[in-house]
Design goal:
alpha+beta, 176 residues, nine-stranded antiparallel sheet, 37% strand, single chain
Length: 176
């Protein structure tokens, strides 16, 4: 694979509203499946989104865009469990959110961003396995999470394997 140079950008604090899951998301089905816990989490979020659409469409500051965040807790190496969050970005915390939802606040950070197409994750694999570890890279991961950024105009949720579907991967970074 040729060298992939991620785009570096800064993102202000993100306030996300959505649903989460903690555990091994692949114990019931393979990766990239609507049958694993991530797929079921998306199903639960989308069902609740429809239920509260009147509120969420007013709150969503990036219409047509959603986030999937993978958090690696401190016990990950022993348990292989991590937290997955799916949701939308909102302007601020609000008091009266439906009980089915939680907030996640992500800090202001620089992000190394790459795009994957269909089920070809070589760009994000390269980012983690080579680019961040390379002496040529002046960055290292700053927080133990990564973001999958979905734009409904670029990602085909009905056909996740579509080679034209795009997902942007944001990895928080800081200079070494």
């Amino acid at each position: 694979m040729g060298e992939i140079i991620p785009k570096i950008s800064e993102q202000k604090q993100l306030i996300l509203l959505g649903c989460n899951f903690y555990g091994n998301p692949f114990h019931s089905a393979r990766e990239w499946s609507k049958e694993n816990e991530i797929g079921k989490l998306w199903g639960r979020f989308l069902q609740n989104y429809q239920k509260y659409r009147f509120l969420l469409e007013k709150l969503n500051i990036f219409p047509g865009k959603s986030f999937e965040v993978h958090f690696e807790p401190s016990d990950y190496k022993n348990t292989k469990n991590f937290e997955i969050f799916v949701g939308i970005a909102v302007e601020q915390l609000i008091e009266d959110i439906p009980l089915e939802f939680v907030f996640k606040i992500l800090p202001t950070s620089k992000y190394a961003t790459v795009t994957s197409y269909g089920t070809d994750y070589s760009s994000v694999d390269y980012l983690f396995s080579e680019w961040l570890k390379s002496p040529k890279s002046k960055y290292k991961q700053s927080y133990p999470f990564m973001i999958e950024y979905y734009d409904e105009k670029r990602f085909n949720a009905r056909n996740m394997d579509n080679p034209k579907s795009e997902i942007d991967w944001w990895i928080p970074v800081v200079e070494k």
